[in-house]
């Protein structure tokens, strides 16, 4: 992955500077810019379009989702990772609807946050760990086409489990997991597992 400039947006100086210091150690990171408000973030993004934005939702002068939406329109090549204290389903859906490529809670371990930033910068999606979910009631379409095992498999994927971990959780072979993932993708009309998880978040199935 080529070197990317990163914009870190958070109103807490300790969090902001700590994140910048962690990212500065990564070989794929170029310069790291910081902003403590929505206004500062807009100005920084306009002056130096970032290759990755890490955004808190709660800013003193507005909603971070607004910045994510603005970057999605103005800089489509700039993926956004939301780093928030809130695991509320409405906050998650708001961020995803704005165009966020990942959502992570601030209490995640530093290495997990850096790994999530790397994944999002490379074009992937990251959700969790720590983003709460609910799996009660009848799931909305197209997820109502899934049987209970397939639904649980999707929720495990949304929680960040690997195929091997899913196999252990469901006590089935890893090859069976791969086959069932293919079945899930076909039933919900997703091109890959990342899109299936994103669809589940947007539908409110995963919170």
Automatic annotation (TrEMBL):
SMART domains: HTH_LUXR, REC. The keyword Hydrolase does not apply. Residues 139-204 form the HTH luxR-type domain. It comes from the Bacteria. The keyword Transferase does not apply. The modification 4-aspartylphosphate is found at residue 56. Residues 5-121 form the Response regulatory domain. Keywords: DNA-binding, Phosphoprotein. CDD domains: REC_NarL-like. Gene3D superfamilies: 3.40.50.2300. PANTHER family: TWO-COMPONENT RESPONSE REGULATOR (PTHR43214). This is Response regulator.
């Amino acid at each position: 992955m080529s070197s990317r400039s990163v914009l870190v947006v958070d109103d807490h100086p300790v969090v902001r500077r700590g994140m910048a210091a962690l990212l500065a150690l990564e070989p794929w990171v170029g310069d790291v810019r910081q902003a403590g408000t929505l206004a500062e973030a807009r100005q920084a993004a306009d002056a130096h379009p970032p290759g990755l934005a890490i955004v808190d939702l709660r800013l003193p002068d507005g909603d971070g989702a607004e910045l994510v939406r603005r970057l999605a329109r103005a800089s489509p090549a700039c993926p956004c990772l939301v780093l928030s204290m809130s695991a509320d389903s409405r906050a998650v859906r708001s961020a995803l609807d704005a165009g966020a490529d990942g959502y992570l809670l601030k209490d995640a371990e530093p290495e997990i946050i850096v790994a999530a930033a790397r994944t999002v910068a490379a074009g992937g999606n990251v959700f969790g760990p720590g983003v709460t979910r609910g799996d009660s009631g009848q799931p909305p379409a197209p997820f109502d086409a899934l049987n209970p095992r397939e639904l649980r498999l999707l929720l495990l994927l949304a929680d960040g489990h690997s195929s091997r971990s899913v196999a252990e959780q469901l006590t089935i072979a890893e090859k069976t997991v791969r086959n069932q993932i293919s079945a899930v993708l076909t039933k919900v009309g997703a091109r890959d597992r990342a899109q299936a998880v994103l669809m589940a978040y947007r539908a409110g199935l995963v919170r």
